[in-house]
Amino acid sequence: MTQLNLIGRTLGGFEILEELGRGGMSVVYKARQQAPNRIVALKMLAPQLSLHSNHVQRFHQEANSIAALQHPHIVPIYTVGEDQGFHFLAMQYIQGETLRDLMQREGPLSLERSINLLEQAAQALDYAHSQQVIHRDIKPSNMMLTDKGWLYLTDFGLARDTMGNSGLTSVGMVMGTPEYISPEQAQGLATIGPPTDIYAFGVVLFEALTGHLPFVADTAMAMIGARLMEAPRAPRFYRPDLPVDVDMILLRALARQPEMRYQTAMAIINDLQIVAQQAALWSQASQPQTPWPQVSQSQTPWPQQGQTPQTPWPQQAQTPQPQARPTPQPQTPWPQQGQTPQTPWPQQGQTPQPQTPWPQQAQTPQPQARPTPQPQARLTPQPSSDPNLVAPAKHDRSSLRLGFMIGLGISVSSSILFWIVMLLTG
Fold first, then answer.
1. I need a surface site. Which of 15, 134, 199, 329 has the fewest CB within 10 A?
2. What is the DSSP letter of 306?
3. Cα–Cα dist 22/271, whole Å
4. Is 271 a catalytic residue?
5. Local mean pLDDT, 10-residue blocks, the chain (426 residues)
6. In the prediction, which pLDDT does 334 show?
7. What are phi and psi of 242, to 5 degrees?
């Protein structure tokens, strides 16, 4: 591409500020639109291609079809025009970086992050297909990312080769980038449709997850021949930690026959989301479970019935105060009958004396006089007027006399018998 210094020039009401990128068929500049006053991305067709009417016609026709696309993940096109022999289109300026820049800086992405980013591209791609628009150049450098992670798909329908800084070179042989084009696109077949973009989308997913391409070659022709004659490598060849089902999903997206691939880009994302959810569940199930905490030995269990807890529950900010030891007081026994109390009530005009205080230090307690027991009068039973109570007393006296006589008789008989035995033996 002829190197032209257009910075500082104004074309079609756009003041060119700086160059953003350069490819085989176009150059992208940062420009300021005069009316309305805003910053835009200005894409110009290469000057040498402007000399060919077919390239110019295709540039305007495809730019007009893309301008009709209204999707939150497709960079909107503001206008298409020509000035001083330069054909251009003005697009929304995206402050950020490409997916290629992100991959080069961070390396292979996790499955979850790859799904979150490329789901946005899948939605945009399926919408474009529903509007009969084929991108034909899906690759990481055509996906812009904002600082907040919002993805925009760019360069819709603008076929281009990879001359310059686009990697493997191919001048005018096939339209697209050899690293990402489908087998039918590499053969230059006319039957190019949505499966072509599905294939390239699968290659982008493969590279995002592994940091490698599914085919290895040194030249553009060798890359094209590999996808026509060889099977792609499985993603787990580079990332053994990926789930096995990821291999099946991406290899189906990279099928050589268009009819064997997924029909939509979101179908690939949906299957990957299911695999990611299953992998997360397996990861949680394999982690050791945290048991319930055991009761520490330092804790005091709840006291059983009738049992006093050894460690009572501490009161908040309460300090136990020492209690004063009570001074025992001597008790004065209740006076017995006929006994004079030792400490009588004080008489009128007398000072009450202490009963018997606790002996103080250096004091000798005085002995107290032992009380003399007084004889108690014998109670004489009074006769009762009730005849039922007199009869048992008479019966008792008769029984005593009979018992005395029987005992006396037995004693006399025993003495007589003893002397008889002594006389017989003497």
1. 329
2. T
3. 36
4. no
5. 77 94 84 94 87 83 81 92 91 94 96 97 96 92 94 71 36 70 88 93 98 92 90 96 96 96 98 95 76 56 60 54 60 54 54 51 56 56 51 58 78 80 77
6. 52
7. -70, 150
Kindly state the helix (H) or strand (E) to which residue 78 belongs, with its residue range: strand 77-83
Q: Is the pTM of this model over 0.85?
A: no
- Which of 137, 155, 161, 271 is catalytic? The answer is 137
The three-state DSSP-derived secondary structure of 31-55 is EEECCCCEEEEEEEECCCHHHCHHH
Q: What does residue 22 show for φ and ψ, rounded to 5 degrees?
A: -140, 135
Only one residue has tokens 């397996």, namely 282
**Cα–Cα nearest to 125, from 156, 90, 161:** 156
Give residue 398's pLDDT: 67
285-298 per-residue burial string, b: 16 or more CB within 10 A, e: under 16? eeeeeeeeeeeeee
d(CA 205, CA 114): 7
| C-alpha R_g of the chain | 59
Q: In Å, what is the CA distance from 15 to each residue of 8, 26, 47, 67, 75?
A: 6, 18, 18, 22, 20
Location of structure tokens 């990861």: 283
For residue 104, what are its two tokens?
């080069």
Half-sphere exposure of 14 (CA within 13 A, CB side): 30
Cα–Cα distance measured from residue 108 to residue 422, given in angstroms and rounded to the nearest whole number: 138
* Cβ–Cβ < 8 Å for 44, 58: no
Sheet holding 14-22: strands in order across? 10-11, 14-22, 26-33, 38-45, 86-92, 77-83
